[in-house]
Write a structure and sequence with these properties.
Helix content: 40-55%
Distance between the termini: 32 Å
Strand order of the largest sheet: 4-3-5-2-1-6
Order of helices and strands: HEEHEHHHHHEHHHHHEHE
Mean pLDDT: 83
Number of helices: 13
Structural class: alpha/beta
Strand content: 5-15%
Shape: globular
Number of domains: 1
Number of strands: 6
Length: 295
């Protein structure tokens, strides 16, 4: 099992990189306001459960409902977007974090923007930007989340892993870290870097939007999340196919396999749940009954 502190760093530097873009591409959700869904039918002898997470949230906003805890107890394994219990996770992340063709941050950012970013990391984050010199720009977003949220973030994934561990449930992944990191090779590096500069330049607006998103998440209002993010200027517009839809489709066959092997608690970013191309709709089209579990 990986060290929890190391795992937290992985969440901050990897999964949280998808947090903003995942929510920004959220689609219309089913009418019920719920983050927790029961999956049954299609020959299942016991139900599995699907839960929409927000990957990073302040401790004061963090909450695990009793129905969620009860659902985990009824399952025998926990499926996250990636297997965060994999002992080789850190090594794989390190191997795949760099830009292709030996590109450097100074190659893709104008000197003025680079100096601006460098100064922000030095003054606000107490970090030397040189440690990210060859990293995919999205990697630099991880350290920014503490500043954006104004707290030391809490992780739903880590807490769900803790609950699963108490009942000795296995932790598995719906995709590999290689698959997740490869996503950031499909988005132009200069565009990723430009998004970072934009977030820094408009930090008050960034904070306000995140706090609004957290509020809607706490209300379990996926439709509200969608409405808010239609006007977001901090997402990666045009990347919804690779960031969400392709991944959702890839997961369905994997979910079909694992929930027939044993009852599973599946936890993925909330934006993956809704819409015609969302996981809920795709599971229903595959013949499953998916119903909201309300608290």
């Amino acid at each position: 099992m990986t060290n929890p502190k190391s795992t937290m760093k992985i969440i901050s530097f990897i999964i949280s990189l998808l947090a903003l873009t995942n929510i920004v591409f959220a689609q219309n959700a089913p009418g019920e306001k719920s983050l927790l869904w029961e999956i049954s039918g299609k020959g299942l002898t016991k139900p599995s459960y699907l839960f929409g997470t927000i990957h990073l949230i302040c401790p004061t906003d963090f909450y695990l409902s009793q129905p969620l805890k009860n659902s985990i107890v009824k399952t025998q394994q926990l499926a996250l977007e990636i297997d965060m219990d994999d002992p080789g996770l850190i090594a794989t992340m390190t191997r795949t974090m760099y830009m292709a063709d030996d590109k450097k941050l100074t190659d893709i950012l104008p000197e003025k923007d680079y100096d601006h970013l460098k100064q922000f990391y030095k003054d606000s984050l107490k970090m030397d930007i040189s440690m990210f010199s060859r990293a995919k720009p999205f990697m630099m977003m991880g350290p920014m989340f503490n500043k954006i949220l104004g707290c030391e973030p809490q992780s739903y994934e880590l807490n769900l892993m803790g609950l699963a561990g108490k009942q000795k449930s296995e932790v598995i992944g719906l995709e590999s870290i290689e698959e997740q990191m490869a996503i950031f090779d499909t988005i132009p590096y200069d565009r990723q870097a430009g998004m970072l500069v934009n977030m820094i330049d408009k930090m008050p607006e960034t904070r306000k939007e995140f706090h609004e998103l957290v509020g809607l998440y706490k209300q379990q209002d996926l439709q509200g999340l969608y409405n808010l993010t239609l006007k977001s200027e901090f997402g990666m517009d045009g990347q919804d196919e690779v960031m969400l839809f392709q991944r959702n489709q890839n997961w369905i066959s994997r979910i079909d396999k694992i929930i027939h092997e044993k009852p599973t608690f599946i936890a993925v970013g909330a934006a993956h749940l809704g819409g015609d191309k969302g996981v809920i709709s795709l599971l229903r089209k595959a013949g499953y009954k998916v119903r909201a579990v309300v608290k």
